[in-house]
Design a protein that fits this description.
globular, 13 strands, alpha/beta, 4-stranded parallel β-sheet, about 10% strand, single chain, 3-stranded antiparallel β-sheet
Length: about 575
């Protein structure tokens, strides 16, 4: 039983069961300052039932509650404030962390159920830009968090390796490209052709028609179109893998759009058999009026398939292949209607598991307030950002700790970690403007700040030469340590919330808060003094190190022992 559940149980007993502990626990709040208690119960919710003013209810409750398990319980206005027993609470919390180590906070919400996560999904023949960062790192963090809570995540990189853009690229290559040029610098050259095509096609619309013909050739299995497609795909994957290695992100599947070419006929057949397809201006659509959605366009008038046709095939394939309990799509918020249509069409097809599909939307990264765009050429390459961030981390390490033994490795962990953490500390639906100088600072709400707090904890443990702890002697009642101990105790609740809300920022904000509270404790207490409390204080330091490292791991961020 955690401390919130303990408080809820005490209140329920004082109310003679009028509210269950489960009803109460969700209403418990945390006061803004510790002098108001560690947890509080607002009595407004009981005013109608008990026909009393909330402040009178609070006073009555405080008198009735069995205070044995608490330091004290007092009524303040309409709140019942609970003060936990600091020494015993600290000992219980620290013992759990030191015993469980990196398994601390783990829980079984998922019973091993499979959760495919559609994430990253860059388009072939285009370099990965900052625009691809969010889906990649949000999806990776959600996978880690779900794994911590008993699910079995399956990370799928649904590559954009099919579609009309390949017709445009082939046409552009045939007009301006050479094999030698592309071999020398594959991704950047292909991007250059793609951007030039869009600029020139505005004045020469016939180019779009030529591009459509090239894509039709590809769909029909034309030898030259297929050769170019395979070449573009192979070169792109080499480039992508370099960046994924930098980010520390691995995938279980790279099945992209092309994988579903032979799986769409079944989709169309089911739609026809259920009389769901209707003709509209030569195209075939599924009417979704009853869902207040526009019709889902399944086939164009020329017979070409669309993105939703492939997503329908992919959803059916994944259900059969993985027997998923949830299926997540970490895709930008601008695609919200697409996923509403996808679920609606699957429901119309008779698949009741459509309810297990969840779109995990996120906001944009902007640069100087402008949306990043490959077509317009306004693109910031992710590889360049990671390199610049690592360089900036190295400069700061040179200034702060020039004698650090493994500077190159640490600069990589700090630089890449800073970019990932900066993304994930933002609530995923929020957009944000990217500024590299702010991202790699060692102070403030940054990844390096959290990494540095953890490295400081490890440094203290090295100085004390402490690797084992007497768990019978870890009671701490130092007020300066209390907020740190309370923060440590909340880790399991934080992970549960992050998992149920698919929200990695909950973990990132928690890590910032824990680092901040630990730094305050370190600044106000003499931790390494040789006295009877040394074992307990170092147990606290080690616990902070364990939980900060695990928080960063869940976010996909490395945690160096020295910085």
């Amino acid at each position: 039983m955690n401390n919130r559940e303990q408080v809820a149980q005490a209140i329920s007993e004082a109310l003679d069961g009028q509210l269950t502990a489960e009803d109460i626990v969700v209403k418990i709040e945390q006061p803004k300052t510790s002098d108001l208690g560690d947890l509080a119960f607002p009595t407004f919710v009981l005013a109608k039932t008990l026909h009393k003013a909330p402040n009178l209810i609070a006073a009555d409750l405080a008198d009735k509650i069995d205070q044995t398990a608490f330091e004290k319980v007092q009524a303040v206005g309409p709140y019942v404030n609970f003060f936990l027993k600091k020494g015993s609470f600290a000992a219980t919390t620290l013992a759990a962390i030191l015993t469980d180590k990196d398994q601390y906070g783990a829980q079984n919400l998922g019973n091993g159920g499979n959760v495919p996560i559609d994430m990253s999904s860059p388009n072939i023949a285009k370099p990965m830009s900052m625009g691809h960062l969010r889906s990649t790192v949000i999806g990776n963090a959600i996978a880690n968090i779900l794994s911590k809570t008993g699910y079995h995540p399956i990370k799928i990189n649904h590559l954009g390796d099919w579609g009309t853009q390949f017709g445009k690229l082939m046409q552009a290559y045939k007009m301006w490209g050479t094999e030698a040029e592309v071999k020398a610098d594959p991704i950047n050259k292909l991007l250059e052709y793609y951007v030039r095509f869009h600029k020139e096609a505005k004045e020469h619309p016939e180019m779009d028609e030529d591009a459509r013909e090239w894509f039709k050739k590809l769909e029909d299995g034309d030898e030259e179109a297929t050769r170019l497609w395979k070449w573009f795909r192979s070169e792109s994957l080499k480039s992508f893998m370099r960046i994924y290695d930098e980010l520390g992100v691995k995938f279980d599947s790279y099945n992209g759009e092309a994988f579903y070419n032979d799986k769409m006929d079944e989709v169309v057949q089911i739609l026809e058999d259920k009389h769901l397809l209707h003709e509209s201006k030569g195209a075939e659509v599924v009417d979704l009026d009853k869902y207040d959605l526009n019709p889902a366009l399944i086939k164009k008038s020329d017979g070409a398939t669309l993105y939703i046709t492939r997503d329908l095939a992919a959803a059916i394939y994944r259900k059969r292949e993985y027997k998923f309990v949830q299926s997540l799509y970490v895709v930008g918020a601008e695609q919200v209607n697409h996923f509403k249509q996808l679920k609606a069409v699957l429901t119309e097809m008779g698949f009741d598991w459509a309810d297990q599909i969840h779109h995990i939307p996120f906001g944009l990264i902007t640069l100087n307030g402008q949306k990043l765009s490959t077509r317009s050429g306004r693109v910031v390459l992710l590889e360049d950002v990671l390199k610049d961030s690592i360089d900036l981390a190295m400069k700061q390490i040179e200034a702060k700790n020039p004698s650090l033994a493994n500077k190159t490795e640490v600069a990589h962990e700090v630089g890449v970690g800073a970019v990932i953490f900066h993304d994930l500390k933002n609530e995923r639906l929020n957009s944000f403007d990217f500024n590299l100088e702010e991202v790699v600072r060692f102070e403030g709400d940054t990844g390096p700040y959290v990494q540095y707090a953890r490295a400081r904890a490890e440094s203290m443990l090295r100085k004390a030469n402490k690797t084992t702890f007497d768990l019978d002697d870890i009671s701490i009642d130092d007020p300066a340590a209390w907020n740190t101990i309370k923060a440590l105790s909340e880790f399991g609740d934080v992970i549960k919330r992050a998992a149920t809300e698919y929200e990695p920022s909950v973990v990132a904000k928690y890590a910032i808060n824990l680092a901040r509270e630990f730094n305050k404790y370190y600044a106000n207490s003499k931790v390494l003094v040789e006295d009877d409390g040394l074992n307990a204080r170092l147990a606290l330091v080690k616990s902070v190190s364990i939980v900060l490292k695990e928080s960063l791991r869940l976010l996909g961020v490395e945690s160096p022992d020295e910085m």
